[in-house]
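Reopening this ticket.

The earlier resolution said the output was attached, but the attachment link was broken on my side. Pasting everything inline this time so it's all in one place.
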Amino acid sequence: MTYRDIPSALMALESGEVTAEALVQEHIERMEQADPKIHAVLTSLAEQALEQARDIDRRRQTGEELGGLAGIPFTAKDMFLLRDVRMTAASKMLDSFFAPYTGTAIGKLLEADAVCIAKVNQDEFAQGSSTEFSAYGATKNPRDLERVPGGTSGGSAAALAAGIGLFSIGTDTGGSIRQPAAYCGVVGVKPTYGLVSRYGVVAVVSSFDTIGPLAHTVDDAKLVLSIMAGRDRHDATTIEVADDHFDTPITKQPRVAILQEYMDGLSPEMTAVYDRALDQLRESGWDIESVSLKNIGLALPAYYILNPAEISSNLERYDGIRYGSSDQSADNLLVTYTQTRGSFFGPEVARRIMTGTYVLSAGYYDAYYKKAMQARTLIREDFEQAFANYDVLIGPTTPSAAFKLGEHTSDPVAMYLEDIMTVAANLAGIPALSLPIEGPDELPAGLQIMAAQRGEAVLFDVAGRFERQLATQLKAVKL
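Inline output:
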């Protein structure tokens, strides 16, 4: 790839070293070369991307005002609505759905003149941890084609790692940006809940879902997120973002602590990975303490009660009558409902709908859902107490490097355990970032950095320093 980060590409575009059309064409050609091997792309937007790039070149030549990402190619997880473009959420339920409007987050990027070249693969309705639960087939990790790219934003991470686009956007419900970022060796950011509008993104787990970027560098991710962030009248959960939200001056050395529970129980080889990174940071002058959160062990079980509960509610609309594909062979309404859902929902989505319906049912609501909500409150309070003493908490993003394709598909519990270190940030609504580091066997791993709610400035400050001091050099992708 000619340009590995957004600023260098923007500089080349502004100087005339390269045209937007040539840059976009380069990434389209890379997509055509690499995607047959990794299967990240669901819908190519090559033709309209080149048309947009030519218009950007024309406007640049005539001196018209351009957006802050003018000519930068990117990809988007197939959860984002883009007007008149097919949007599937990787489900046969939405196989023939074309978006009637453009969502806010992706719309802001387009207003900044970024160029979307493809909609990319994911787990169906963003439910999974490996992008193996896509109705259109699994995506492969470009760093090892026998391994998963992570999920649910696996298509975004895989495409970016393979050199398709200079950034991607995904959704993070319980780690769905950070986990694939760790597996594929890129930066992935889950912002504070409500920082980015969810309008025009398929609703799945509404109290957890966040929108964030995947990028090659911390600064690239910060730039993209700053453009997407902000209040939106279409989404009542969004929050106001001050002009200095991402660049509040950090006047002292940030206080850092490693989350001890995330280090306990790691395999010897993964322990060595993080010990090596921590040693490098300490040698660079960081005083890294250790902190324990007494209720963090409740995070995964609470998440896998609350997550299915909200899924069962949000996906109820897909009944073959109001929304989604429909099985027309039935002769009455009830059979239409059951056959439609049986035909067009995949196994993981069906499993979570059934689990969620159970925990919300009479007699079980108090026993499961209510207790999970109480656990969520305890976890949020634990983080608030920790952030009273520390600016950021750090630890592994995942308990292992990318696992083999098919390794966990028949064992849902093993698959869910891949999220054990990411779900707590979603329960607490705090921002978190996965920074690529060298993992075992020439595979990447992720160092997770977490900050208090609305603490993106300190999050990016620390992550940027870590990025420079660790100077991670991952094995090049060769496809």
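Reporter confirms the inline version is readable. The chain has a mean pLDDT of 96. The radius of gyration is 21 Å.
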